[in-house]
Amino acid sequence: MGVGGSPRRHGNTEILLEKALAGAYENGADVEFVRVGDLSIDHCQGCNSCFNGGECRINDDMIGLYKQLDEAEVIILASPVYFSGLSSLMKQMIDRCQCLWARKEVLGGSIGGPGRIGALISVGGQNPPTFRNSISVVKSYFNSIDVEYSAELLVPAVDEKGDILNQPEILEKAYDMGVCLVSGRSGS
Ligand SMILES: Cc1cc2nc3c(=O)[nH]c(=O)nc-3n(C[C@H](O)[C@H](O)[C@H](O)COP(=O)(O)O)c2cc1C
């Protein structure tokens, strides 16, 4: 499962994510691509109602996404660097997974099957951009939903839409990441 968190359709983040998903698909995986910006996702209200039963009381597109996140064996999160962190689209989606955290940490349940792995793809316009905040958030998120942080592809100095197409070796790295994730190895 690839989750794209850039508001810019077919921008650098999505191009890399699609490459990674192509690598996975061409090596036998069922893949799905979710563009967070296409979904209607409200902010987490911090109401803690999910502490009773593990369900979020907000009825929006997260309902379907929770199911997809629960069923995915491999999750790739892809986000541009925005002000030294994840895009707000991606962060908003992550915050809404507080109910998954609650299922595990408050209610003692589990999320997903065993051995789940995940990866982060990120691009930034500066050289070097600050990736460490995004890495930190994604590691924390993956930990909360029982996904092992297994690979990362972090690309600096990519700013204009489609800039990444000038770096075929990075596109290849993204493809290889998808291949490696499907076979359960680190794709970094
Ligand atoms: C609101 C905003 C904030 C940004 N902040 C940063 C930043 O802190 N560091 C950086 O390296 N690039 C930053 N950028 C540049 C983007 O990361 C860069 O343009 C990237 O290629 C966008 O990816 P996309 O084509 O997938 O949307 C920012 C861009 C925007 C629109």
Detailed description of the structure:
- This protein is of the alpha/beta class and 188 residues long.
- The protein has a single domain, classed as Rossmann fold.
- The protein has 6 helices and 5 strands, in the order βαβαβααβαβα.
- The protein has helices at residues 12-25, 62-71, 88-95, 98-105, 132-144, 168-182, and strands at 2-4, 33-35, 74-80, 117-123, 148-155.
- The chain has a 5-stranded parallel sheet, with helices on both faces.
- The longest helix is centred in the C-terminal third of the chain and has 15 residues, at 168-182.
- The chain is globular.
- The mean pLDDT is 96.
- Residues 6, 8, 11-13, 80-84, 123-126, 129, 158-159, 161 line the site of flavin mononucleotide.
Which descriptors apply to this entry?
single chain; 188 residues; alpha/beta; Rossmann fold; 5-stranded parallel β-sheet; 6 helices; globular; binds flavin mononucleotide
Number of strands: 5
Major β-sheet strand ordering: 2-1-3-4-5
What is the mean pLDDT?
Answer: 96
Ligands and ions found: flavin mononucleotide
Q: For this structure, what is the CATH class?
A: Alpha Beta
Class per helix and strand makeup: alpha/beta
